[in-house]
Write a structure and sequence with these properties.
It contains 3 helices and 6 strands, in the order αββαββββα. The protein has 158 residues and is α+β, with helices and mostly antiparallel strands. It has a single domain, classed as Hotdog Thioesterase (Thiol Ester Dehydrase, Chain A). It has a 6-stranded antiparallel β-sheet. The protein is globular. It comes from Actinopolyspora erythraea.
């Protein structure tokens, strides 16, 4: 549904921190399903010894899920097509649970739902699956849109 080119147009992230490969389902303002293929060529595995079992870092799993939430935010309502002169900030998360390890060769499937929107604050919930098994659940994530000049010291995109 959304190619990597469209994802790159909506998010400011680039290699090595663009952690969403494709959006396979999206209902703007409601829900989104995105995928990220984990490969052994990721920078996080650069110094992993050959005799160890490389696990995908939980922090990158959460970041990838958060980027999926940002894509859902970018597709909805007046934000359709991006955030204009604002930036989206990750505020907090609650009820996070990890249920299994992720390894190179796995494909993360992020399920994100917009549960509430209050002005420039958005509340999301969801989970991540690998081969149909939940590896991560999130009860609530708060993301907030803020003027880019106040955050970056310059207008967005500069």
């Amino acid at each position: 549904m959304l190619s990597v080119q469209r994802i790159r147009a909506l998010l400011p992230h680039r290699y090595p921190m663009l952690l969403v490969d494709r959006v396979v389902e999206a209902v703007p303002g409601e829900r989104l399903v995105a995928r990220k293929a984990v490969t052994v060529n990721e920078p996080c595995y650069a110094d992993v010894a050959d005799d160890t079992d490389p696990r995908y870092p939980a922090s990158l799993l959460v970041e990838s899920w958060g980027q999926s939430a940002a894509l859902l935010a970018a597709l909805g309502g007046e934000r359709a097509g991006g955030f204009g002169d604002k930036v989206l900030l990750f505020g907090s998360m609650a009820g996070a649970e990890f249920h299994g390890d992720v390894h190179p060769g796995d494909v993360l499937e992020h399920h994100v739902s917009l549960s509430r929107e209050a002005g420039d604050t958005l509340l999301f919930e969801g989970h991540t699956e690998v081969s149909g098994n939940r590896v991560f659940e999130l009860e609530r994530a708060v993301l907030a849109l803020r003027p880019s000049e106040g955050v970056l010291g310059r207008p967005a995109g500069m």
